[in-house]
Design brief:
Layout (H helix, E strand, L loop, with lengths): L38 H15 L10 E9 L2 E11 L7 E9 L11 E8 L7 E4 L1 E3 L2 E9 L5 E11 L2 E13 L5 H33 L3
Helix pairs in contact: 1-2
Length: 218
């Protein structure tokens, strides 16, 4: 690497192999000589710690059950859901009501219909109600979708009405955004990039100061 140093020069060598700039020979203590540290190490550490401390809140996976084989009236009812919050009025709260007869030897009549109602948990506001439709003509598997306009916990009520009688089951579910995190998580996720930007800006200022110092006549 000596070919990059000019004889008699007091300017620190620029090392093409180094990642971020100046290096310093042992014993050279002249003003302006720097040994810069790589800012990426700290940024990576901050990112790893952030990911470890922030809980994963968003649901971005397959539907899951909130009611499993609950007997109510003449039915065995299961409710599966994919509870996605939306801001544009799209019905992202999806529900599947699965029905089976509670008694042996009976079947679910084709006239049987399920309805799904939701409201914010702990509140007394009006419910949003949707009538479920059979999936591909299968009355034992009925689908309904509702708008969940904010994140948080919802009370869910599934009702069944048909020749075998009426039945109702209840549960609660947490609604979250499917593809984008909440504002709080956006701030936390952007923090490592802000740290990298600050460290990089500081490094550039240090290098500029060092060059000005070395340019002064001795």
């Amino acid at each position: 690497m000596d070919r990059f140093r000019f004889p008699g020069s007091r300017v620190p060598r620029w090392c093409p192999g180094s990642r971020f700039g100046f290096s310093r020979e042992p014993g050279n203590q002249e003003p302006g000589n720097l040994r810069t540290r790589e800012p990426g190490n700290l940024a990576i550490t901050v990112l790893l710690v952030t990911c470890a401390l922030v809980p994963l809140r968003a649901h971005n996976g397959p539907p899951y059950p909130i009611v499993s084989n609950q007997v109510s009236g003449a039915y065995v009812i299961s409710v599966w859901t994919d509870p996605d919050t939306t801001d544009d009025g799209t019905p992202g709260g999806q529900f599947w009501v699965r029905l089976a007869p509670a008694g042996p030897g009976s079947q679910i009549p084709k006239e049987t219909r399920a309805t799904v109602a939701i409201r914010a948990a702990g509140q007394t506001g009006r419910e949003l109600v949707a009538t479920a439709s059979p999936v591909r003509g299968d009355v034992t598997n009925q689908f309904a979708a509702l708008v969940m306009d904010h994140e948080g916990r919802y009370a869910v009520r599934a009702s069944v009405d048909g020749p075998l009688g009426n039945a109702t089951v209840s549960a609660e579910v947490d609604a979250t955004y499917d593809l984008r995190p909440s504002r709080y998580l956006l701030i936390v996720y952007l923090l490592p990039f802000v740290v990298v930007g600050l460290l990089w800006g500081r490094l550039l200022l240090q290098r500029r100061t060092a060059r000005r110092t070395l340019a002064r006549p001795s």
